[in-house]
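User: Predict the structure for this protein chain, please.
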Amino acid sequence: MYPFGNAMENYYPQQGPTEITSLSIGDTVLSGTSVVDDKKIRKVPMLYHPEYLVDYITELNFIDFFDAIVTGTVKTPIGRITDSSISKSGIAQGFSGPGILAVKNEKLSVTSPGAFVYGYKTPYVFGYKTDAGLEIKEGNKTVKVVSSNQISNDTIPHEYVSVKSVKKWYNNADVGDYITLDYAIFNFNDGRNLVAPKDIEKFFGEDVVNYLENYPSESPVLVYMGHITEKVIGSNGDSLGSYPEYNDAVREQNSRAFVEAWNGTIIPPHTTSSGKETVGFGRSIDPHAPGGWASHGVCPAARAMRGAVFQAGFGLPTGLNGGEYAVNFGYNPAVDVKVTNNLDYPVKIVMWTSGSGPSMGIYAKVIEYKSQ
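Assistant: Here is the predicted structure, written as structure tokens:
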């Protein structure tokens, strides 16, 4: 059988690793995920690959062994085209965190995540107004069409846009217009495939979902960290002060809003991020400002953050200047102000306040995450 099988192997070559996967190469997988589709494994006459019987015995795969004896056909043993990160039954194993399905040395493998994994928030689920209703598309694929009177929490994604807002948009939109309903994460630093909205929590956890919902589209999002150490590399503080002509109560509110917008912002290495887009600011009358109003009170908080990022070695954030009135007119202090991390490790901006009124203290620090 062996000489005959060797002579005929060109007619029935062993299947390659990409031919039997249940997922796409580059997809994110967790330990315990089945990555081999048994239905894709080809059967060939046993004469062509009698050596597979030895594999069945070695792997204690008695079901396939007896099936081969009865039917005279054999399947490519999974162990021949997978490495140790995948079990003989096709289950991902032996790693922690979100791995990546890959091919290495002509074998199907799972690559462990690096110390840090990050990608970017990107629009992914869209609602198009059509003559038939609201057409829901994921990427470029239509998943369903919802009639205008059936738009509800049960029929459309509503994590980012309320049903009320979608209905209002639909009633005023023209046929062909679209609205973004949900977001994916793509352009990962380790090259893994896009992760769709439905899989984000499964692969990366609820905290990443919550983070994603607060930051603008195209923001960098750190989705995984291995064993790390934390070090404060920049800190600064300021105080609110009193400018009653600009309404100190509104100023305090705006200063706290700036802190809320930036506290907890994580900026991966060599990326740029704004604060949260879900934070709003109040207005104070100012005849010297464009439009006759400004969000006074954000400048003390901006000065605190500016000093902390300077101490960390970063450049002047976009939208800020080096003066006392630190936020440039016309810039939203949350989404238009942007900080660039020029380091090789992620950083986190932490901000908080103490006290209240004109003497309220405002503080900021920059924490560097380093892999152990």
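The first helix runs from residue 2 to 8.
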